[in-house]
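Quick entry between incubations.
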Amino acid sequence: MSSPSLGSSLTRRLRDVTTRLADHPFVTRRLRLLLSLKGRVPRATFWYATLGAWAAFVVLFLLFETAFGRASTLLLYPPLLWAVFAVSGKRYHDRDKSARWLLLLLVPIIGPLWVAFELGFRRGKRGENRFGADPTGSRPGPVAIGLAA
Amino acid sequence: MRAVWLAVSLASLGVTTQGLIQEVEAPLTPIEHRRGPEQTFLTVPEWFLVHSPAELAAYLQDQRPSMFPYFGHIRQFWESYAAVYRVTKDDYPLNVGYHVMVMVIGVSTTVEYAVKAAYETVIGRVTELTRTHGMTEEDRFAARVAQDYVDFINVTPWYEYDFAGTALALWKETSLWGPDMIRKWERKYILTTEYGVKAIYGWIIERLTTMGYEPPIPLTAVLVDRLPPGAADELPDLTVLRVLPDSSVLVTVPRYDAFKHHALGLARHGARFVEIAGNRSPVLVSYLVPAGWSEDESRHTIMLRQPILTRPATQRIVISVPVDGLQAVLVEFDEPRFDLEHVYDF
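Done. Structure below.
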């Protein structure tokens, strides 16, 4: 009759591993990047996080489709959309703008082009802004310091 | 046809070294009608970008856009380019301009299809699920435009298509209200965006292409061993340029998509090809054949074989045959189970 204790021991061990994994700085940083709406991300982080989220989506999509059928892949949509939204919002923060600017996407033609250009290619505001410290660690230029003073 | 004119213009810069190819006999075709022997190969990936939209257009008539294999088509484009590169790299002069053009259109198509795949798989699929009345007006409009676009690019560079007018027509020809409003407005949004972005991109490419380059001659010169009676009547766009002392005849026929109809017409009348665009070297011809068909049934060199992803019972084969053997191939494959897709007329 050792199964219950073996079962509970396995469960405890699994819980320990997942807790330790979730607390690992590598994982917490990435989870925060993909889930949190707070803070700023620079261009490079925006690109790798967005492409990484899409790559993970494609891999999981194929796995789910093969294993459970096409309908099951719909489960992947909310996490993908949230991750892309969270990273894009933080990129707008880096531009010292609210994530509401993502509503520009609803304007046909110009909207998606402008948002892609602004998020993917324009650098963030130098120095600290209302959304947090400069993620690239650069300081504001002399003009900005003068204005702040 | 995505960038046939651009390619021809680049080729005319002198980046080809056609003279390096040792022909048994000097071409009898006038120099203004000659094209590089490598171009029959390099036009394969280029024409894939006509055949792929054609497959998409046929698919959209009654299927969901979210199910189209965009990534499969990206893979097939690069597979065709890899096959062409393998065949030409040692035996043909390096046509740098054409390779650059193929790379440019390949990368731009890869980006376009990847973005479409992402959008249609996520947003498009969700709005498809909200439909309760089948295709919306906008879905049908998109299917119609897709076919119209394919018909257009078979004979004209893609960037001349009236994308801006098409975007306006979308709003004029479809109602603002009706069944399946979510899908309806989502389609209005994405189709307006697609046509609008293509209008802007096409305008830029057209300016770059026409800047300093002459448009190519839309004709292909063909030297045939004879002009059989009745052939010229059946092919009204055929023009006789010259009759040579040995009774062979130099003619011009329309280039691009129409070339296949003229080549087939001449072949059916028994005319043998001696030169095409000044070449006696291999020319490529593609067919859509049953998926189970094997090259064991034929004595010809199959350069490329691709499944038609949206029609599993069909495959594309690209046959490489010397110009003087083209007539035999066209006649041999002239039966209902084989669909002549294209003759790559350099």
